[in-house]
Write a structure and sequence with these properties.
The chain is an alpha/beta fold. The protein has one domain: 3-Layer(aba) Sandwich (Rossmann fold). The chain contains eight helices and twelve strands. The strands form three sheets. A six-stranded mixed beta sheet has the order 6-9-10-3-11-12, sandwiched between helices. The structure holds adenosine-5'-diphosphate and magnesium ion. Magnesium ion binds next to helix 1.
Length: about 250
């Protein structure tokens, strides 16, 4: 689905992603963990193509096409969708207008909004005065409407209360299961969302570098026990011992 090769990205003059290699296959759900400020959101913004995120080297290949120079809307039309961590408030633009613009055939805005407990929000300016959890659900509504083949979820569970997290998990699964080839990248701090959406693989971003790839459950358990600093030490040890093979 997507192949990221030797990707280095700068914002202003600051390197936020360094030599990233990551592949997500069709039908695969990849978990991405990492501490604050490690570059997780930057990875999503770079995949989506926001102009502040300048690619200084490397390639992003989506469905076999190099998309480094494609605009955000071209990427969205090609089938990449994102649930943003901090989407902007846009005064004068109603949630319904945005969803109606995004929606694919046979999508009922009212029905989906009802399922996400967002009916009363359709007539409100997008994200204006929405709580953290309401923003997440509004982002899911837009993703559902657009039906992307690759979904990028940026901390889907943060700020969502206990009742709504079940709903968020259910809707994420619905987006993923619309087509068996659909794939996703899920960023999380806590891993709570994995009670509802099962990742196939996991990786860790620390200090703008990808450090590991493997079984998401064991990665999460290790991080909970040893902290992220462990990844850097582990990587250092691995470089010393070339016989220790890792897959990425
Ligand atoms: N527009 C910006 N200008 C300068 N630095 C930025 C900008 N956006 C993000 N950063 C910095 O880039 C680093 C990575 O940020 P981010 O990708 O949001 O991390 P994460 O999502 O892992 O918490 C952080 O140190 C952040 O402060
Ligand atoms: Mg972030």
């Amino acid at each position: 689905m997507i192949k990221i090769q030797n990707l280095t990205v700068k914002i202003a003059d600051r390197e936020v992603l360094s030599n990233i290699n990551l592949e997500i296959k069709k039908g695969q759900v990849m978990a991405l963990l990492g501490p604050n400020g490690s570059g997780k959101t930057s990875l999503i913004m770079a995949i989506m193509g926001f102009s502040d995120y300048k690619i200084t080297s490397g390639d992003i290949i989506f469905k076999g096409k190099r998309i480094n120079n494609a605009s955000v809307d071209e990427r969205a039309r090609m089938g990449i969708g994102a649930m943003f961590q901090r989407p902007p408030t846009i005064r004068g633009v109603k949630t319904r207008q945005v969803v109606d613009l995004i929606k694919q055939e046979n999508f009922s805005t009212d029905k989906a909004a009802e399922e996400l407990n967002l009916k009363e929000f359709l007539g409100r300016d997008i994200n204006s005065g929405f709580s953290g959890g309401e923003i997440k659900r509004s982002e899911l509504l837009q993703l559902l409407a657009g039906s992307p083949s690759l979904s990028l979820f940026d901390e889907p569970e943060s700020g969502v209360d206990m009742e709504n997290i079940v709903l968020v998990g259910k809707m994420m699964n619905r987006i993923l299961r619309k087509n068996k080839d659909n794939a996703a990248l899920i960023i999380t701090h806590t891993g709570y969302i994995f009670d509802y959406v099962k990742p196939d693989r996991g990786c860790i971003l620390v200090g703008s570098k990808l450090h590991c790839a493997g079984n998401p459950k064991s990665i999460l358990t290790t991080i909970k026990k040893h902290g992220y600093q462990w990844c850097i030490t582990c990587e250092g040890e691995r470089l010393k011992d070339k016989s220790h093979k890792t897959s990425r």
